[in-house]
TrEMBL record:
<dbReference type="InterPro" id="IPR003439">
    <property type="entry name" value="ABC_transporter-like_ATP-bd"/>
</dbReference>
<keyword id="KW-0547">Nucleotide-binding</keyword>
<dbReference type="Pfam" id="PF08402">
    <property type="entry name" value="TOBE_2"/>
</dbReference>
<dbReference type="GO" id="GO:0016887">
    <property type="term" value="F:ATP hydrolysis activity"/>
</dbReference>
<dbReference type="InterPro" id="IPR017871">
    <property type="entry name" value="ABC_transporter-like_CS"/>
</dbReference>
<feature type="domain" description="ABC transporter">
    <location>
        <begin position="4"/>
        <end position="234"/>
    </location>
</feature>
<dbReference type="InterPro" id="IPR027417">
    <property type="entry name" value="P-loop_NTPase"/>
</dbReference>
<dbReference type="GO" id="GO:0015423">
    <property type="term" value="F:ABC-type maltose transporter activity"/>
</dbReference>
<dbReference type="GO" id="GO:0055052">
    <property type="term" value="C:ATP-binding cassette (ABC) transporter complex, substrate-binding subunit-containing"/>
</dbReference>
<protein>
    <submittedName>
        <fullName>Sorbitol ABC transporter ATP-binding protein /mannitol ABC transporter ATP-binding protein</fullName>
    </submittedName>
</protein>
<dbReference type="InterPro" id="IPR003593">
    <property type="entry name" value="AAA+_ATPase"/>
</dbReference>
<dbReference type="Pfam" id="PF00005">
    <property type="entry name" value="ABC_tran"/>
</dbReference>
<dbReference type="InterPro" id="IPR015855">
    <property type="entry name" value="ABC_transpr_MalK-like"/>
</dbReference>
<dbReference type="GO" id="GO:1990060">
    <property type="term" value="C:maltose transport complex"/>
</dbReference>
<dbReference type="InterPro" id="IPR012340">
    <property type="entry name" value="NA-bd_OB-fold"/>
</dbReference>
<keyword id="KW-0067">ATP-binding</keyword>
<dbReference type="InterPro" id="IPR008995">
    <property type="entry name" value="Mo/tungstate-bd_C_term_dom"/>
</dbReference>
Length: 367
């Protein structure tokens, strides 16, 4: 079992608050990803869980036991770092067995555990090599193997893929997802990369400035971001934002007059907001279409386009000067400066109030 409860956790360094009251529940066998911009406190939060930093206040509970002040070695957690932290003078085999040797585990048991980890991570042929004779990807697998042999209650990963090149990152990401299924283990994974968060997590925890912005499954966060920060952080390319004013509010729909001139009716319940209040419309590139002139809702000017082959991402500027990104077919490429007409998939538009909080979607659309 590995149920982790974090309550009102705070951490400051030299009087500066870094973790500002985090509450979080992590359930047995979950793959939880902490994601957020660099410096938001992800590593600090992970290190507090591991016991590598002392908390300033608050509680951490593992399977009902308070571990807030427990020594790291007694917590039964294993951490994998971005920098691998292997012992350079030891073989792979020795790197894998070292923690077990220290704990005086029996020789046969150590051999069995090392063999098992080597098999899972396909390190069998590399056991007698030293770390400098390994590629970056292989070193990272050894670092993960060192965690596996310890059979920890929770695996803690701090940006484990950041030092790998792009292709290897994708491959290792898949291997980690498979590892999670095979081991049926609880994993907490820190990254600044929202694609890693979306693809790996059962549960994503979006952090910003030492606070939790939102917790949910990847698709809950994609479809129902709670605020502008989460909306802008998750999704590639990013959601576009347009300023506007509410000019009709009904129970199940509302009208928004955008600064760029377009007026949209949205199937959203903006009850609680009054006519005249400032709002921000959010629309993802995949929920905008380029249509023939006259049939759309908004004219924009094409800025640069990024052609990926499968898709083209057209960056466009609106009459207000605000920028949007539109995802279109790969064979479509507007010229810089072209006038385009856009249509909005209004069922998938988001609306945020003046404080940046999401205006609720009607229930039948909850994905
Ligand atoms: N040991 C430390 N002493 C002082 N400040 C620290 C220490 N560790 C982290 N910080 C500060 O805490 C903030 C969050 O750091 P960190 O948790 O590493 O962020 P992230 O992993 O999200 O990039 C940063 O501003 C960092 O400078
Ligand atoms: Mg970090």
């Amino acid at each position: 079992m590995a149920d982790l409860k974090i309550r009102n956790l705070q951490k400051g360094f030299d009087g500066t608050a870094i973790i500002k009251g985090v509450d979080l529940d992590i359930r047995d066998r979950e793959f939880v990803v902490f994601v957020g911009p660099s410096g938001c406190g992800k590593s600090t939060l992970l290190r507090l869980i591991a016991g590598l930093e002392e908390v300033s206040s608050g509680h951490i509970e593992l399977d009902g036991q308070d571990i807030t002040d427990m020594a790291p070695a007694r917590r039964d957690l294993a951490m994998v770092f971005q920098t691998y932290a292997l012992y350079p003078h030891m073989t792979v085999r020795k790197n894998l067995s070292f923690a077990l040797d220290l704990a005086h585990v029996g020789k046969q048991e150590i051999e069995a555990k090392v063999a098992n980890a080597a098999r899972i991570l396909q390190l069998d042929a590399l056991l007698e090599r030293k770390p400098k004779q390994l590629s970056g990807g292989q070193r990272q697998r050894v670092a993960i193997g060192r965690a596996i042999v310890r059979n920890p209650k929770i695996f803690l990963f701090d940006e484990p893929l950041s030092n790998l090149d792009a292709a290897l990152r994708v491959q290792t990401r898949l291997e980690l997802a498979r590892l999670h299924k095979d081991l049926q283990a609880t994993m907490i994974y820190v990254t600044h990369d929202q694609v890693e968060a979306m693809t790996l997590a059962d549960k994503v925890v979006v952090l910003n400035g030492g606070r939790v912005e939102q917790v949910g499954s990847p698709l809950e966060l994609y479809h129902h971001p709670a605020n502008l920060f989460v909306a802008g952080f998750l999704g590639t390319p990013k959601m576009g934002f347009l300023r506007g004013t509410l000019n009709r509010v009904e129970a199940d729909s509302c009208d928004v007059q955008l600064e760029c001139g377009t007026r949209l009716t949205l199937p959203l319940s903006a009850a609680g907001l009054s006519v005249g209040s400032s709002v921000t419309l959010g629309v993802r590139p995949e929920h905008l279409n380029v249509v023939s002139a006259g049939s759309g809702r908004m004219q924009v000017t094409a800025d640069v386009s990024e052609r990926l082959g499968s898709d083209t991402f057209c960056h466009v500027s609106c009459a207000s000067g605000e920028m949007l990104t539109v995802r279109v077919r790969g064979d479509f490429a507007p010229r810089y400066g072209d006038t385009l007409t856009l249509d909005f998939d209004t069922a998938h538009c988001h609306l945020f109030d003046a404080d940046g909080q999401a205006v609720a979607k009607p229930l039948q659309q909850a994905a």
